[in-house]
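Subject: sequence -> structure tokens, single chain

Hey, anyone have a minute? Need the predicted structure for the following. Not urgent.
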Amino acid sequence: MPHLKVNSPTGDVNFFYNITTPASPSSPAIDPNLPSVLFIHGEYVPQQIFEAQFSDPELRNRFNLIGIDLRGYGATGGFTPKTYTPTHAAHDLYLFLEALQISKIHIFALSINTHIALVLAATHPDLVHSLMLCSTVPPQEPEGVAAGRVELFEFWSDSQVQESGGRGLKGFDEDLLATLLKGAQQMLFSDNATPLAEAVTLVSLEYNAIGWAGTPEARETGHTFCLDWFLERRVFDVDFFSKIGCPVAIIHCEDDIAYPFGHAEELQAQLTQAGNARVTLCQIPGPRYANVLYPEILNPIIRNHILSVTEPNNPPGKGVSVVKKESLLETPFKEILAKYGYRADSSDEDSE
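Reply:
Had a minute. Here:
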């Protein structure tokens, strides 16, 4: 499992990451001849949320794809301090990319962690070549959505069987945990419980049961990422947005039950009014994490956005094989997703 230790002002962090190139699903380095895309996951889930992007030959044969578990998520190690914000996370990612000697990056980010992408683009404009922001959040959390997130976290806390003293899923009440999962899946995937959505949910649960439960420090980490990042998030001003000059694609998912289309329009207006003339906005079908459910619609948007801002006729990397367009390629997430019943080479019916 590839890890990279970064010495950060907020404490050392041992990032778990994957680099996928045309030549390999798990490469030690990027192909320098190709554009690189950093995928930043959203709330509750680690990098396996991008299985449908990493398996797509239309993306894999054109770009380096980089997945990472943020601090406090997945297999990334390192203590999360009490004061840890998307601004701190953006600096950690800058140090991570610097350590990998990546000097230009495109970013695809989900949900609340689009704030990380925005901060990285504002503070390091020479590094970030373009942004793709999917399921963005408004400046402040709507009252009803905030109440829903508080309720989910209360279920998470209540479902932990304190007297067990155990880490992992053995320390949880199964009935309460089932209620929690149903609520989280409704917010992220609506009623579309596909095999991939189910597997991603269970992978996330496995990691979060260790990282966000069992000790006071772990519970505090869970509070940071499940509540603090939403309820206490930074409100960006015109001066901040004026520092983002790269092309920005804002992608809104039509069935997002938390944030309506108007919030995405507001972000587009803020960036445009701040002087960025290269901001586009589109809608796609599906719930908040539609990248899992509708990759056939989202992935071409990712591909076309990157190609529109990079030099044309980028030479392909060495070892690129000819792959049928409908074929899905192996990803670094194959083994852990298979543990929970997902196989990319089988139909939904077979997986179920």
